[in-house]
Design brief:
The protein is an alpha/beta fold. It is built from ten helices and eight strands. Helix 4 packs parallel to helix 5 and helix 9 crosses helix 10. The chain is globular and about 45 Å long. Bound molecules: zinc ion (ZN).
Length: 271
């Protein structure tokens, strides 16, 4: 498939969470991620943060960040990637080294994923706690992956009150959003807020203060309506932004300005 996207208006887009190293870009689009990114950077997209999911993909994210001035990285081990047979301390040494790279701006994505019964919950919790310890030690924010595990994640985060960060593709309750904001966290919404079956989430969006909200793709996953089910990319964030603006009752330009400034502040990127 040839990559062909034209934005409907001019907006400053900051994609706070993507996986451009995912093989779907190379398999499904002529020219792969390089074609997609160079096209998007000539349009509305100003910055993209690629999230690492294991030691190897974290390395890939850094390599991409070195090639593009507009690309930054986070490094960490995703709860779906932990393995009871892996040497956790060796992985932590690799992650610690990568965290010192100038284009790495947070530790993530880390967290708990109870959607499938694998990996075992106690193993996921062990890696989650170990990475929160590392974030506390190196004083860096974290990117949280929370799938069907809201209660356990909040319980574990209470053990590390010095650590803050962002919940990516937020899906927990309004009460959890309120608690997180109070404790200095940011909330990032994905294309899921455009889905028809996301009425509960839609109610939560405008309760997040405008200085704490960010938006993301989670590309190639979670494409917003009207592209639901297709390969996602940062250009499509204009649909997510339009829905968020509608929920806040402000213009999409104003919403994007806030989301952009928040992301620059969170990831320590100038302007
Ligand atoms: Zn992700």
């Amino acid at each position: 498939m040839k990559f062909d996207f034209t934005p409907s208006r001019e907006l400053p887009i900051f994609d706070t969470h993507a996986h451009y190293n995912d093989p779907r870009f190379e398999c499904e689009i002529d020219g792969g991620k390089d074609e997609v990114l160079s096209d998007l950077f000539s349009q509305n997209v100003r910055y993209v943060v690629n999230a690492g999911c294991c030691v190897a993909s974290s390395c890939d994210c850094i390599a991409m960040a070195e090639r593009y001035p507009q690309v930054y990285a986070t490094v960490g081990v995703h709860p779906g990637e932990v393995d009871p047979d892996d040497d956790m301390e060796a992985a932590m040494e690799d992650i610690r080294t990568m965290l010192a790279h100038e284009k790495v701006r947070a530790l993530g994505e880390i967290g708990l994923d109870y959607h499938y019964d694998d990996p075992p919950r106690d193993v996921q919790k062990m890696w989650f706690r170990r990475q929160l310890e590392l974030a506390r030690e190196v004083k860096m924010p974290v990117v949280i992956h929370d799938r069907d595990a809201h209660g356990d994640i909040m319980d574990i985060l209470r053990e590390y009150p010095e650590v803050t960060g962002v919940f990516h593709s937020f899906s927990a309750s309004g009460e959890i959003a309120r608690q997180l904001v109070k404790r200095g966290w940011y909330i990032s919404f994905s294309g899921v807020i455009t889905f028809k079956n996301a009425a509960r989430l839609a109610q939560i969006v405008p309760t997040v203060p405008l200085d704490r909200v960010m938006i993301e793709t989670d590309a190639p996953y979670l494409a917003p309506v009207p592209y639901r089910g297709k390969i996602n990319h940062s250009g499509l964030m204009e649909y997510t932004a339009a829905r968020a603006a509608e929920l806040y009752g402000i213009t999409v330009e104003e919403f994007c300005r806030h989301a952009y400034e928040n992301a620059c502040r969170f990831f320590g990127i100038g302007e």
